Amino acid sequence: MAKAKDILIPSMSGEWSYILGLIYADGYIHKGGLEIKLKESDGYILKQIGGWLKYNLELNPRFDIVKRKDGFNGENSLRMRIHSVKFAKLLNSYGLKSNKSLTLKWPTSGLFMKDFIRGYIDGDGCICNSSNKLYTIILGSYDFLNGLSDYLHKTLSFNKRSILKHNNSKISKIAYSTTDSKNLCDWIYSAPLNFFLVRKHSKYLSYIEASVC
Fold first, then answer.
1. Contact in structure between 188 and 148 (CB atoms under 8 Å)
2. Distance CA 39, CA 76 (A)
3. To bridge 17 with a disulfide, which of 1, 108, 115, 138 should be the other Cys (CB 3.0-4.6 Å)?
4. Fold identical between 7-92 and 113-211?
5. How sure is the predictor about 72, in pLDDT bands with cuts at 50, 70 and 90?
């Protein structure tokens, strides 16, 4: 752990890489800090992350329930808010800015990539197990997904995938079918494993269990 200009800089780790991945996907960064929301049933992961940030970065995350009638299938969301200009500047140093949805770039810093990608998928990805076939769909900016595709091609020998528009919106998507999706999940859920959404991990486990029956 280092400290520069009163900003605690965490040592790179799987936990911090996962947190950055989730913030890349779902975080709202502003000059005063960070806000991030997940549906309430997934909110336990924010509580876990909040505990890590409090212990390691001396931050004071606050949580509240946001009631909503739309989105998340009508489910309320849990919001984590961190009011810290210094923390916002730290996130800026990783390429995270406000209004990042369409401009996000693939990170170049030395992250633990399997944890970072798992965090991103937990925020803006979908793991589906249907008819004993496994699919992974990931949303994001074109530049980010192009960087992800290049990384998986070089690291896991995935075939390059087309990056498509998602539902005719400005958001892009990339999809992996069973073979690549299984290889991706084998990797991101390999030990050592820290934070993860049980709901998405369970889709992968159910596919594995059905495959060996």
1. no
2. 6
3. 115
4. yes
5. low
Query: Cα angle vertex 129, ends 127, 133, to 5°?
Result: 115
Paired tokens of 171: 């958001």
**pLDDT 10s digits, 102-152:** 889 999 878 999 999 999 999 999 999 988 899 999 999 999 999 999 999
Q: Tell how strand 27-30 and strand 7-9 pair up.
A: unpaired
Architecture in CATH for domain 113-211:
Roll (3.10)
Kindly list the domain boundaries of the chain, sorted by start residue: 7-92, 113-211
SS3 content of the chain, % helix, strand, coil (to 5): 45, 25, 35
How buried is 157 (Cβ within 10 angstroms: 0-12 exposed, 13-18 middle, 19+ buried)?
Answer: exposed
Those residues whose C-beta lies under 8 Å from the C-beta of residue 161, and which sit 6 or more positions away, are 149, 174, 175, 176
Amino acid in position 62:
R
CATH number for domain 7-92, candidates 3.40.50.1820, 3.40.50.2000, 3.10.28.10, 3.50.30.20? 3.10.28.10
